[in-house]
Design brief:
Helix content is about 50%, strand content about 10%. It has ten helices and six strands; from the N terminus they run βαααααβαβαβαβαβα. The protein starts with 14 loop residues before the first strand and ends in a 5-residue tail after the last helix.
Length: about 240
């Protein structure tokens, strides 16, 4: 599943902004059992459709999605307590597994002097904890969590804020995402976005807006290496 990258040689690549869960860390799968357990505790039947629909959303928007889908109120405090208790226990025992190609891609970007940052729907404190558990916490100086913006993905706020902190225009930034909500967020900010799907294949709309779709971060690195060898990396 690889989509040919669209060539728009207009802007030099100066920064890559990474999503976290499902893109760099294989943590979406770890969260699913905790979501189901929390749902059972508060009397919610969280089906696959509901869980997949929440991927890429921040916590508040996930509750809105659940309530709309289930047509009932969600006891947010009780759900959150049950979820985080189980999820953090899982993280403490299993860690935050890295997806294939993460280290190699980061190493390559540092060699090319391309800035990197994280823009995640996870709250900042938990995001920093996950990155440390994964052994890459020291690789990212800029981590923007969902609690740092007013509107979460698919709104563009988090990518616009990360671009501002980097002091690099969105035209010179490339976002890496795994979810439809994340891809829409990056695209809405004006950035190009490469999608590396995780649990769910990209929708047709996501494929249309994506600069490229690849199977792994290894493939993203290979594309960027080839672009560097040819004409430099342009977006």
């Amino acid at each position: 599943m690889a989509k040919k990258v669209l060539k728009r040689n207009m802007h030099k690549l100066k920064a890559i902004i990474f999503d976290m869960d499902g893109l760099m860390l294989d943590t979406e799968r770890l969260a699913i059992p905790s979501l189901r357990k929390a749902g059972n505790i508060v009397g919610l039947n969280l089906t696959d459709d509901i869980i997949i629909g929440m991927i890429g959303l921040n916590e508040d928007d996930a509750y809105i999605f659940m309530e709309k889908y289930l047509n009932r109120n969600v006891p947010k405090k009780e759900f959150a307590e049950a979820f985080y208790k189980d999820y953090e226990k899982t993280l403490s025992t299993k860690g935050a597994p890295l997806k294939d190609g993460v280290i190699e891609l980061i190493d390559f970007l540092e060699e090319e002097d391309i800035k990197i940052a994280v823009a995640t729907s996870t709250k900042t404190d938990l995001a920093l904890k996950k990155l440390q558990l994964a052994g890459i916490g020291d690789r990212f100086k800029i981590v923007v969590g969902s609690d740092q913006v007013n509107k979460g993905k698919p709104a563009p706020d988090i990518y616009l804020k990360t671009s501002k902190i980097l002091n690099i225009h969105v035209d010179n930034c490339l976002a890496l995402e795994d979810s439809d909500n994340g891809a829409m967020s990056a695209f809405a900010s004006g950035m190009k976005v490469i999608v590396v799907p995780d649990i769910k294949l990209p929708s047709s709309n996501t494929e249309d807006i994506a600069f490229g779709v690849y199977n792994s971060l290894f493939e993203v690195k290979e594309y960027l290496q080839t672009a560097t060898q040819e004409n430099g990396i342009n977006l």
